[in-house]
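hey can u check if this looks right to u? its 255 residues, i copy pasted from the old doc so theres a chance i mangled smth
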Amino acid sequence: MKRMLAVLPAMLAAMVAALVTGTVPAGAAGNWAVTYMDPLPGGLAGGKPYTLGFWVLQHGNHPFEGELGTVGLRLTGEDGKSLMFEGTALPEAGHYATSVVVPEGVWKVEGIQGIFQPHEVGDLSVPGGLKVKPVQQGPIEAFVQQRTDYWDAVRPPGFPDLPGDKVTVRTGQGLPTAAPPVETAAPQQATAPEQAAAKEQARGSGGVPAYTLALAALGGALLAVAALRLPRRKDRKDDRQDPPVDSSSETIVIG
């Protein structure tokens, strides 16, 4: 509430100026949020990756406190083709970065600002560079008047370093409390030599387990032995002769 009362005079002045001149103040653009770009590379070539930094500030002069939602940069070509590059939060409040790969052409660049409406940033020519719309001084003046600073050395472009302590703003809601994890016994892992030996065996056998090959080899050996022993037993049976009968031997008959 105090913050709103502090910036209210500057907001009213900007609205009056808009009514007189017929223009929209920067603080009102994008439904009361503004996207500022960090310094860009000297030139952008088509099909090459670049990392771009940008700031999303409510009313154009302070970071939004709470869960903002998805932010990023949206590029729209002359043919209506649209490219969306979502931003990743950086340590500074309201500061984001994204990686882009843009084909050659002329693109309109918009800042996607979560719960706020998109903010028109400028025009990008590839090859070439980004022509950013001029930053209005109204939000920066309101930032100085409210005497509340949120950043150290890394800060939005054009925002002066105010004296005094910095204010920490919570720019994201905490995650819901999760249930305690259930402890389970971890499976025993084979040592590196055992894993290497297993892989070597599998590779040598074409992916067939080693014990399968051992059983097959043993079965083959038993069949070979049986095949060799069968003829020998037959030969021995054929070669064996009955003992000679002695006709002169006496025969005893027991009545």
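Strands lie at 33-37, 49-58, 62-63, 71-77, 82-86, 88-89, 95-101, 105-113, 116-126, 130-132.
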